[in-house]
Structure formats: C-alpha cells, structure tokens
Amino acid sequence: MYNSPLQAYQTIDNSTMHGRDIEARVLTDAARKMKQCQQDWDSENRSANLDTALRYNQKVWSVFQVELERDDNPLPLTVRQNLLRLITFVDKRTFDTMAFPEREKLTMMIQINENIAAGLRAQPRGA
Asked: Per the domain annotation, does 93 fall within a domain?
C-alpha cells in the first residue's frame, strides 16, 4: 500500500494510465471513501474512517493545487484560477467537517469529486 495519494499517483502515472485517467481515479477513490463514511456513519470507527477519508481527499486536492500553481501548467489561466477557487472551497469544507462532523457535509465534496472525475474522463486525450 502507498503512504500517500501522491505516491500512488506517481506510481500509476508510470504505468499504462494517462494523466486524466489517474486524476479521475484518485478523485473517484476519494469520493468512494467519503461515501463509505456516510453509509457507516453510526459505526464505532466513524471518527477514524472519517479522518482517513478527509485527509486522503485533502491530499488529492493538494497535489492538484501544486500542479495548478506551476508556471508551466498548460491549462488556461482562467481555468486554473477557477479550479484554485474550488480547492479553497474544498479545503474550507474539509476543515469544517473535521471540526464539526455531519454526514451531510460530505455530500458536496463527493459530488465535486465525482463531477470533476466525470469531466476528466470525458475529455479527449489531445485536449
């Protein structure tokens, strides 16, 4: 098992998957972890599972943030700025959920991850 999403991301990147596929996959994995927390909300392990899921999601988005802030990032500036605003929202929601856990707070982050992942999968390779 990998110690961080970044390690998994880098390892997968060296295999057969393309960048967008990797990004979609890690976002989907993070959404799946948060969904599992919602489903098992009354579990005695909720706190640990929630912490694990939120920290994983936070690391995924942190990797995206680093990439978006690179000077050589090929995305148009407007797209990068919008994604960075989205990352700020995800960060705030994550910290709020860590401090004041509520099952419903996960829904928006799950939807964001799933929608971004779907968009990444729908993009043509040359785009």
From this structure: yes
Give the C-alpha separation, 88 to 41, whole Å.
26
Instruction: Please name the helix (run of DSSP H) or strand (run of DSSP E) that holds residue 42, with its range, or none.
Output: none
- Cα separation, 24 vs 38, whole angstroms: 21
Weakly modelled stretches of the chain, pLDDT under 50? 1, 12-14, 127
Number of domains in the chain: 1
Q: Are 53 and 60 in contact (CB under 8 A)?
A: no
* Residue-level pLDDT at 124: 61
Termini Cα distance of the chain: 32
CB 61 within 8 A of CB 87: yes
DSSP string, 95-112: HHHHHS--TTHHHHHHHH
d(CA 115, CA 14): 25
Q: pLDDT (tens digit, 9 = 90+) per residue, 20-47?
A: 899 999 999 999 999 999 999 999 999 9
Asked whether residue 81 is domain-assigned, the answer is yes
